[in-house]
Amino acid sequence: MDAVPSTPGKFKTERAYYQRLLLQRWIHNHRLFVSVLIGFAFLAVVLLLSPHPSSSLTSSRRHLSTYGHAPWGGPAWEKHVRASASPRVRPSSSRRSISVLVTGAGGFVGSHASLALKRRGDGVLGLDNFNDYYDTSLKRARQALLERAGVFVVEGDINDPDLLRKLFDVVPFTHVLHLAAQAGVRYALRDPASYVRSNVAGLVAVLEAARSATPQPAIVWASSSSVYGLNSKVPFSESDRTDRPASLYAATKKAGEEIAHAYNHIYGLSITGLRFFTVYGPWGRPDMAYFFFTKDILRGKPISVYEGPDHTTVARDFTYIDDIVRGCLAALDTAQKSTGTGGKKRGPAQLRTYNLGNTTPVPVGDLVAILERLLKVKAIRKVMKMPRNGDVQFTHANISLAQRELGYRPTTDLHTGLKKFVRWYLDYYSRSSSLGKKISGIGGLSS
Ligand SMILES: O=C(O)[C@H]1O[C@H](OP(=O)(O)OP(=O)(O)OC[C@H]2O[C@@H](n3ccc(=O)[nH]c3=O)[C@H](O)[C@@H]2O)[C@H](O)[C@@H](O)[C@@H]1O
Fold first, then answer.
1. At 296, phi and psi to the nearest 5?
2. Transmembrane ranges (predicted)?
3. 364 CB under 6 A from ligand 1?
């Protein structure tokens, strides 16, 4: 009881004094612990104030992507990138192996082309943002196949300049096969900005990275048959006019061809644009008519079959994926070196454009008839006027230039190609929806 002070004020003062004493004693007894605590606090402040890792290209830390993708960077990641991009040494081969950055490697043409390159011994590094324009599980299944074949697909965006710079910093790519794009003609009505982002800004980002890389790689990229737009002269030749696009998609691909011209002219980049004609086949794109027709026919759902004015046919020069891949590889193999160094042009560089088609246009009605025979199911056809939303009535490629200069010779007719597609489709979708089961037993993208 004696220790209790007589007034509340006095009690407060003495209590404060007593607490201070206690604290001093506690600090004295825990000197070591307190020093460690101060050390940690100091370290935390230093880390907080240090610059973001992405500001240094040589940093070995992991980079946090600002594009919502997986982090990249670090010694293990770089090792993986280098291993994937390194060609297999083949001293007996007459062809020099190349090292290719394939953008859009999780996509339809990108995955097939990556695998074909890897198979013949070239170094391949994939890049893909795995966006959800269509079923991402299909893209992931393609990625799993590529990984099994030794192709690493970096998850990232072509609009991320830090990532592109880093890739060119780590690997002296000889070529870029630029296939990443916002595809589809009709989707442009719903999301026009995505076409500008991928097909215009994205292409510029890739060319910017390539022009300042040492060595400058040669570029082969995907343009489109849609650049022929409202032309009525058939077959379409590379020298025909391409200034009347019928869709925003076509307009962005045409813009890409002009952008390619400028980068070739200013920086000496060797650039080849390939105008693909309605590519189809196994592991294809679910947004394309042959793919969703198959799905709807099997489900007993009606399909819209377009026709032109006065019941004229709508037709496409459908081109099988393996033929397109051969065209891509031939374009890479015949590409001359870029002529710039340190971002400066040293002389004129190669600039080429080729049609990659099949040369046999098929009416959409005939496509449906082939699918009916292969699926052994009658389609519920709703024949309707082709909507004015970007489609053109027909396409037909003149491929004599590609034949002459690339040795390009398509060998697969629509019936044969669709047969391979249907076989793949039934196999893929009859399996369990689990990704692991989907890829087991299929054995590769080849068709
Ligand atoms: O070659 C090209 O440049 C383009 O080929 C395709 O575009 P498209 O030929 O329109 O392919 P689909 O969308 O699969 O259409 C194929 C045909 O089916 C017709 N169709 C489409 C949809 C539909 O519901 N009904 C229908 O009859 C179209 O009018 C077209 O004639 C791709 O989707 C583009 O990304 C590519 O760039």
1. -70, -35
2. 32-50
3. yes
